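Q: How would the structure tokens look for this protein?
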Amino acid sequence: MALRITENTMTTDLNGEIIATATRTPDGWHVTTWPRPLDRNSAITAMLLAERVITHGEDDLCVMEWRRELANG
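A: Here is the predicted structure in token form.
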């Protein structure tokens, strides 16, 4: 897995395939795997969450907790 962060974009890839992207806008960071804009730190969490879902599944405790944190943030 690789998480790449620039001033205006983020990408997460797994085995060379991009699994999530994020773009910075005036409203916040728009992550392809999350329904609403996030702040920078939450966007990073969402990017890591995308990878965790693929590698550990929907029932993983970290997946469930990170989703809860993002939903409440």
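The chain has a mean pLDDT of 95.

The chain is about 40% helix and 30% strand.

Upvote if useful.
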